[in-house]
């Protein structure tokens, strides 16, 4: 292992928190009592599937920058329509949209992040906006030193500016930082900017062993089973 990175910057959706299980639960809790009998997992996946296309319109310059909360709500309205859900009050749509603020962490995340924080700065490098990340951190006991990423950089991953401006916000060169993610494309983009990389396995994000992110598909600095394994490989003691 080379010199310890000064900062670990984390993808959040899927890497730190379980979006699929959390959104499935939240959608069912709101909609089932109203008589809707949906495939709740399919609902969560459909909503999430609209995430990249919505950001691509911004990355391409077809639309100016807006926070992810705005995109999530627009995508939710489309998903509700696709699943034939009608008659919701605006407040109910808003409540369900804020489910992204209440995503549950993977079991190792709170304690693993606390351990990693003893060895380096830990910060988000997420496409999620600041309010979303702060509320999620408070919900899930995630001990970030800083909230960085798209809203700070005014750019959505995998645009290089998202990574470079996040490093710059910490007054660090990319090579002094490490991107931590469960997604191969995220790490490839981060590596292209000079960041070091750590792939963390999250097999239950999609629950599909054939999914492109079910395993590491690149030459990364570290491949870890979870955050405690990452800390072990970085040489950060358990206590």
From TrEMBL:
The keyword Hydrolase applies. Gene3D superfamilies: HAD superfamily/HAD-like, Putative phosphatase, domain 2. Its EC number is 3.8.1.2. GO terms for molecular function: (S)-2-haloacid dehalogenase activity. The keyword Transcription does not apply. It holds the Pfam family Hydrolase. Keywords: Hydrolase. It catalyses: an (S)-2-haloacid + H2O = a (2R)-2-hydroxycarboxylate + a halide anion + H(+). It is an enzyme of class 3 (hydrolase). Coiled coil: none annotated. Belongs to the HAD-like hydrolase superfamily. S-2-haloalkanoic acid dehalogenase family. PANTHER family: HALOACID DEHALOGENASE, TYPE II (AFU_ORTHOLOGUE AFUA_2G07750)-RELATED, HYDROLASE, HALOACID DELAHOGENASE-RELATED. Catalyzes the hydrolytic dehalogenation of small (S)-2-haloalkanoic acids to yield the corresponding (R)-2-hydroxyalkanoic acids. NCBIfam families: HAD-SF-IA-v2 (TIGR01493), HAD_type_II (TIGR01428). This is (S)-2-haloacid dehalogenase. It comes from Saliniramus fredricksonii.
């Amino acid at each position: 292992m080379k010199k310890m990175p000064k900062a670990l910057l984390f993808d959040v959706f899927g890497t730190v928190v379980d979006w699929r299980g959390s959104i499935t639960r939240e959608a069912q809790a709101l909609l089932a009592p109203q008589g809707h009998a949906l495939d709740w997992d399919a609902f969560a996946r459909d909503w999430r599937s609209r995430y990249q296309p919505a950001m691509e319109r911004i990355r391409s310059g077809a639309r100016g920058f807006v926070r992810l909360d705005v995109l999530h709500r627009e995508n939710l309205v489309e998903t509700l329509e696709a699943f034939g859900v009608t008659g919701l009050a605006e407040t109910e749509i808003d409540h369900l949209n804020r489910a992204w603020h209440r995503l549950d962490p993977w079991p190792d995340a709170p304690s693993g992040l606390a351990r990693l924080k003893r060895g380096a700065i830990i910060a988000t490098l997420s496409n999620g906006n600041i309010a979303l990340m702060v509320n999620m951190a408070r919900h899930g006991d995630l001990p970030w030193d800083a909230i960085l990423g798209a809203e700070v950089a005014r750019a959505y991953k995998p645009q290089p500016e998202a990574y470079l401006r996040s490093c710059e916000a910490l007054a660090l060169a990319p090579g002094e930082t490490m991107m931590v993610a469960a997604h191969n494309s995220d790490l490839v983009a981060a590596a292209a900017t000079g960041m070091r990389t750590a792939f963390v396995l999250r097999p239950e994000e999609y629950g599909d062993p054939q999914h492109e992110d079910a395993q590491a598909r690149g030459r990364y600095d570290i491949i870890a089973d979870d955050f405690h394994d990452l800390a072990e490989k970085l040489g950060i003691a358990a206590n």
